[in-house]
């Protein structure tokens, strides 16, 4: 495993499966162009306070987002990691949104299964059943766009 720390852009580039690849980038634009040349990409992004590993066309279920409607497009700004099969770029703590763009479309607002919560106090005759359905928002992840002329 080869790692290289870039001081100017504060990004860390890691070549994970570098057995047959001899190229180790020395700059952030070089690393992004190597990832762009790979066929499939993934990102690790924060959505609603949690980190998720996302690829294009994924369907993501997150806790309810109250300020969005069905059909709205959300731009994911907290991207912690960008990668392909051969290369990975990690931000410290995030990759700037000028370098990578990922959008998600709100597909639906839904509820989870019915949860039955039973409360009881011994020897007091107190018994209650509380029924609850957790609300969720489903997002469809769009394409991952790596900006061509990213300034570092």
Automatic annotation (TrEMBL):
Record-linked Pfam families: Ribosomal_L21p
GO cellular component: mitochondrial large ribosomal subunit
Entry protein name: Large ribosomal subunit protein bL21m
PANTHER family with a match to the protein in the record: 50S RIBOSOMAL PROTEIN L21, LARGE RIBOSOMAL SUBUNIT PROTEIN BL21M
Record-annotated membrane-spanning stretches: none
Organism field: Trametes pubescens
Record's keyword terms, sorted: Ribonucleoprotein, Ribosomal protein
Listed GO biological process terms: translation
Protein's UniProt keywords contain Disulfide bond: no
Domain of life: Eukaryota
GO molecular function terms attached to this record: RNA binding; structural constituent of ribosome
Record-linked InterPro entries: bL21-like, bL21-like_sf, Ribosomal_bL21
SUPFAM superfamilies, per the entry: L21p-like
Family note: Belongs to the bacterial ribosomal protein bL21 family.
Organism ancestry: Eukaryota, Fungi, Dikarya, Basidiomycota, Agaricomycotina
């Amino acid at each position: 495993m080869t790692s290289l720390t870039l001081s100017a852009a504060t990004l860390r580039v890691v070549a994970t499966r570098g057995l047959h690849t001899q190229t180790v980038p020395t700059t952030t634009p070089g690393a992004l162009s190597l990832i762009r040349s790979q066929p499939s990409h993934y990102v690790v992004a924060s959505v609603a306070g949690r980190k998720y590993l996302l690829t294009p066309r994924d369907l993501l279920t997150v806790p309810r987002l109250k300020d969005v409607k069905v059909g709205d497009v959300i731009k994911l700004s907290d991207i912690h990691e960008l990668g392909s099969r051969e290369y990975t770029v990690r931000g410290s703590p995030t990759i700037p949104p000028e370098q990578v763009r990922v959008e998600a479309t709100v597909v639906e607002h839904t509820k989870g299964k019915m949860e039955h919560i039973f409360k009881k106090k011994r020897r007091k005759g107190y018994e209650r059943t509380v029924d609850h359905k957790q609300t969720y928002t489903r997002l469809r992840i769009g394409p991952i766009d790596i900006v061509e002329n990213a300034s570092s």
